[in-house]
Amino acid sequence: MTIRVLICDELPIIGDGLRTLLDAVPDIEVIGTTDNGMEAIVLVRTARPEVVVTDLNLRTISGLEMIRRLAKEDTPPSIVVFTEADADKTVSDVLHAGVSCLLGKDARPQELIAAIQAAATGQTVLAPSIAQRLVGWFRAQPEPQEAAMCPGASELTSREREVVRMVARGMSTEEVARELIIGEATVRTHVYRVRTKLGVRDRAELVSLAYRSGLIN
């Protein structure tokens, strides 16, 4: 499959250099280059590239704003951000905007090609330095403490947890009874016991506590 690629960079010399590099790759077709964020959106709508390779510095609108707008298209392209900006706020913004791959401009040519190929198949690639920081951040987060957040959770039986999951999905007493092949009175008994163990007053509070405590993902 040929991957159709649009290149966006504020500096024409970089855009042209990337085009020269990618034109030599058999499975990649560069459909255009631009330094203009608004023009890039028009090109995406008309030429339908599978992947957009972009810097965050563009004319008319920023690369980040362009990415956010492209995410709202009916068939949004995959985005490879190729930039020198790697501050934590920038990384957070582009990942939340739906970017598939994030590389620094110190990436080697083969790394960029591999990122484009990965993005075209829905995969995610991050620059090693960014990936290392994200892993460090993740490891620094406290582990979920279900028992501390919900002391009665450890007292629930497997059947009571099953009932909580179904109630959290919005199932009625009758629906839970049919699903588990038990009587409605038995379901109400399970719900009553769960509420007693967790110290909640009604179903709404039960569902809220179940999600907050990690009983329900």
Automatic annotation (TrEMBL):
GO terms for biological process: phosphorelay signal transduction system; regulation of DNA-templated transcription. This is Two component transcriptional regulator, LuxR family. It comes from Catenulispora acidiphila (strain DSM 44928 / JCM 14897 / NBRC 102108 / NRRL B-24433 / ID139908). The lineage of its organism: Bacteria, Bacillati, Actinomycetota, Actinomycetes, Catenulisporales. Residues 149-214 form the HTH luxR-type domain. The keyword Transcription applies. Keywords: DNA-binding, Phosphoprotein, Transcription, Transcription regulation. Residues 4-120 form the Response regulatory domain. One of its GO terms (molecular function) is DNA binding. The modification 4-aspartylphosphate is found at D55.
